[in-house]
Amino acid sequence: DVTQKAEKMTSQDYERIKNHPKFGVELLESSKDLSQSAIYVTHEHHERFDGEGYPQGLKDGKINEYARDVAIAETYEALTHPRAHREKFLPYDALKKMFEDKQRFDAKFLKVFVEKIGIYPIESLVQFSNGEIGKVIEINSFYPLRPIVNILYDSQHKQVTETKIIDLTKYPT
């Protein structure tokens, strides 16, 4: 109920929330049919690769690999849903924010997450800030936020007659 309150969370609220992994582990340990990995994930899904997570402040390889993976999905889910203190992020903006904070996540898991859910799937349409509209024709595995796009419509939304391919790695803005 603390996460649903209308006003911004206090430091006391945040401290209460940081206890939920411990309570989850206590609940799961009473079950005889769960793997140890499920308990690790429950306990460590808010740990961050840079040591800034909770409840223990674990970092790097000290975090269970399943928990590292779940932490990415959990963060994405949290960002793409509204909270009392902020609006939800669009999927692209959520992933952009995660990449800006990439030191918090295991890079290899973050890369696979983006590859699997896709920021700009092939064949998706994108509109540029200048009004041009194009179709994604290739994903850049090194820069998933910068696909290769075939322009279909110019800035006045008229269909283009000549092929115009743009590699967004060459256009940072």
SS-based class: alpha+beta
> What's the pLDDT, averaged over the residues?
90
- Tally of DSSP β-strands: 4
Between the first and last Cα atoms, what is the distance in angstroms?
Answer: 40 Å
Q: What gross morphology would you assign?
A: elongated
Q: What is the percentage of strand-forming residues?
A: 5-15%
Q: List low-pLDDT spans.
A: none
- Number of helical segments? 6
Q: In which range does the helix fraction lie? A: 25-40%
Question: Mind explaining what this structure looks like?
Answer:
It is built from six helices and four strands. The chain has helices at 11-17, 20-29, 36-44, 65-79, 91-100, 107-117, and strands spanning 125-127, 133-138, 148-153, 165-167. α3 crosses α4.
